[in-house]
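Lab notebook, bench 4. Still working through the backlog of constructs that have no structural model yet. Next entry is a single chain of 108 residues. Request: give me the structure tokens for it.
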Amino acid sequence: MKVSIRDYEDYLYDHYKNHGIDSSLFMKLVEEVGEVAEVLNKRDGRKASDNEDLKSQLANELVDVIHYAFAIASLNQIDLNDVILEKDRKASIKYHHKVNQEQFLSNR
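Model written out:
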């Protein structure tokens, strides 16, 4: 099963609409970013690790980051699909990319 950005935003809005507080969700987002940093530090040898599945841990922590970022966007009626494409379009011009995301997807 594939999950679209819109589906995920709708799901998180439904989940948090009655009790989601931006500041609380943001604090969870920051916490999860810290956990990503911890896994990367273990992977790169800056922190001790005991035969842990760091790839799996990294995947799970990144999903948590995405979860809270998308929840904040959803509660604020931000359509991330549109924003992602627009921001990439501007970055492609600014950084002289040969292909922007929209062109990449059209060429597939």
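Notes after review: The helical segments are 5-16, 22-43, 54-75, 80-94, 101-107. The two ends are 20 Å apart (CA to CA). Flag for follow-up if needed.
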